[in-house]
Amino acid sequence: MAKVKFPGTLLSVLAITLVILWSYRCLAAVHTTRLSSDHAVHILMAYDLRLPEDLYFWGQARVGSVLPILSHLLIRVSGLAPVLAISLVQYALLLVGYVCFASLLKRWLSRIILALAWFLPLVSFQMMVSIGHPYGVQFAFVGIAIVVIDWLFNHSGQMPPLRLHLMVAIAVASLFVGLWVSELTLATLFTVAVVAVLEKRDSFPPFSQPPRLRQVAQLPSVVWTIAGVSLLGYALIRTAKAYAGPQDSLYQLNSPAEIGDTLSRMGVAFFRTLTFQVSQGNFFLAIHALLVLGLVGYLLVRFWQRQLFLVGLSRWCPIFLVNGLLSLVAIILSDWAYRNGTPLRYFVVVYISFWFAILLLVEAVRAKSKKSAPFLQAQGLGGFLLVVAIVSALTLRTPILTGQFPPSKIQTLQPLNDLAPAGFIGEYWNSYILCAAAPDRLHCTPFDNQGRSPCPAPGVPARPFGGVRCQRCAQAVMASDSIYLVKNKWFEFFPPNIEQFGQCLVKVGVPREIAGYTVAPYKRSYTLPSRP
Questions:
Q1: Out of 48, 314, 444, 483, which could bridge 435 as a Cys pair, Cβ 3.0 to 4.6 Å?
Q2: Is residue 454 classed as helix, strand or coil in its secondary structure?
Q3: 468 touches 428 (CB < 8 A)
């Protein structure tokens, strides 16, 4: 049977470009319908960036602010709206990461599949392309690091010393930036470091023989480069954490009972997916799970039967397989993840790592006999993976068939501009989002959960503020001429007056519906004295 020929480079690049453009049109912050307050925080940080206090996501000791920092620079240079600037920067970083990873693949079919998994991921992992989460930025810098390290693996002996040290510095710096963005990069850093030492162990002088002078002379210089850049990376992270909020339980481990509970819930969720008991009736989720399970089982059986073998397997396949496994274990063991319900979005690193590893594996697959069925060949397995990736993209339910796009969240928020300039106080999930469309004219903050209603007497000291990550945001809201309270879960009806951030606010108008939110106008009545 003649080999199946895949379309040429031009058609492959066109297909990848269409995937990226479709992803941007459907999922970028400026277009998505799923914008939340977590996303809005990044938009507000990009507009009003304060360093070093904004080196991390507001009030947290995690999610390094690479995206807001780069977006802020773009806003300053171009004058673009913050939501558009951050969307462009996010997709630029996604593209950088994708190009880096795709450059290590040999086949254009594999690169198309990776584009689908990367830009149109399974619905459970769509935070890969979200501005509210670190994964896309993390993989951009991890991608830069692995491309440089791959080059070092293959060409370090042929490089001038200056270029060698520069490449080593870029690789180490990229990994530390990735670590600043997300602590899960530690799994990648550890795995790559172990492999690098094993790969270059022959460069070290054996203990049984006198070391050669050149080896001894060269070894410390590279080690000092690695140590120096690592020290700078560590200093960056320590500085960021010094200005961050509480560490929470980010580094605490689960108890055996909690680990068992996490595994049990994951098993139940997987079984429900396989049996089509998925949330919101997403039929494609179940199809995707069955296809993946079938492929893994098929490969295991064929390798066990020695019908398949590997030729020229990339070193990055086992590295990212281990990276995915270490990340999986870290999330299962994390007390912080458990207290947040261990949602599937935390497993984006596992998802991308396994996709990349399986693509590299399939590229190296060879059948025992050339007369074997086409499905045993790399092309056949690649075709099956393409089907899996397409089904995965369909779980997002983007308007791929109708072409009719619902109004974006940013569009639905536009009526709030009629109230500007103004400040809004609400429950977290309907607070920061209200300023996303116009952070230059609107100010937003979650409510002060220590505030009292009715207001205490003017002479009673105010309580310490509670539940607010961004103090300057609260100050800006309270300095606004027009202040609106946003109804949600923090009160059942708009109170006549309420203490917020040391001020007594009095209702001065009737509630109204605007942009899908119920708001009521308040004004400052008097300031409560600070507690001695």
A1: 444
A2: coil
A3: no
Q: Which residue has the tokens 């850093």?
A: 189
Q: Is 506 helix (H, G, I), strand (E, B) or coil?
A: strand
**Comparing C-alpha atoms, which of 97, 22, 38, 21 is closest to residue 396?**
22
Torsional class of 11: left (φ above 0), alpha (ψ -120 to 50), beta (otherwise): alpha
What is the pTM (predicted TM-score) of this model?
A: 0.90
Which DSSP symbol is given to 510?
A: -
CA terminus-to-terminus distance, the chain? 87
CA-nearest of 5, 186, 19, 101 to 356 is: 101
How far CA 138 is from CA of 145, 189, 349, in Å, comes to 11, 12, 9
Contact 477, 443 (CB under 8 A): yes
CA 58 to chain centre: 16
**Cα 459-461-463 angle, rounded to 5 deg:** 150
Cα separation, 48 vs 72, whole angstroms: 8
CB 369 within 8 A of CB 293: no
DSSP 456: P
- Phi first, then psi: give them for residue 517, nearest 5 degrees: -120, 150
Q: What is the pLDDT of residues 429-475, one digit of tens each?
A: 889 999 999 999 999 999 998 889 999 998 888 888 877 889 999 99
What radius of gyration, in Å, describes the C-alpha atoms of the chain? 26
Q: How many residues does the chain have?
A: 532
